[in-house]
Amino acid sequence: MFGLVVRFTCKDEQSARAFDQLVSETVDKIRTDEPGTLVYAVHKVDGQPLQRMFYELYRDRAAFDAHEEQTHTRRFLGARDELLASVEVDWLDLQTGKGTDG
Predict the structure, then answer these.
(1) Which of 15, 39, 50, 99 could bond 83 through an S-S bridge, CB–CB 3.0 to 4.6 Å?
(2) What is the pLDDT of residue 69?
(3) Is residue 27 included in any domain, yes or no?
């Protein structure tokens, strides 16, 4: 399995609302069009109204690469920058866990 955690910090409250709408539209397509995307969880951060955390888990690197090439993902990547103050990505190496077959 292949995964990552991403912390997005929006510029302001208006940007956060627009980011949430963009995310909602994108996740709808991920649910229906990406069988190799096992988990794509979007979280608000308690006490940090401008931050969002994504946890993404893919069947393998090829599934992640396929995700990155999707039209909806490319639209998200192109539209997000004007809404964000920062993006931090941590790549994960799954060791073990429940529901992961690891």
Answers:
(1) 15
(2) 98
(3) yes
* Residue 100 lies inside a defined structural domain of this protein: no
- Residue predicted with more confidence, 85 or 97: 85
| Beta carbons of 89 and 39 less than 8 angstroms apart | no
Number of structural domains in the chain: 1
Distance of alpha carbon 31 from alpha carbon 11, whole angstroms: 27
Summarised one tens digit per residue, pLDDT across range 21-35 is 999 999 999 999 999
In single-letter form, the type of residue at position 85 comes to A
Q: Do the domain assignments include residue 101?
A: no
In the prediction, which pLDDT does 4 show? 98
Partners of residue 42 on adjacent β-strands: 54
Rounded-to-10 torsion of CA 70, 50, 15, 52: 10
Domain containing residue 87: CATH number: 3.30.70.100
> What is the C-alpha separation between 5 and 42, in angstroms, rounded?
10
pTM above 0.70, yes or no: yes
Helical (H) or strand (E) element with 49: strand 48-58
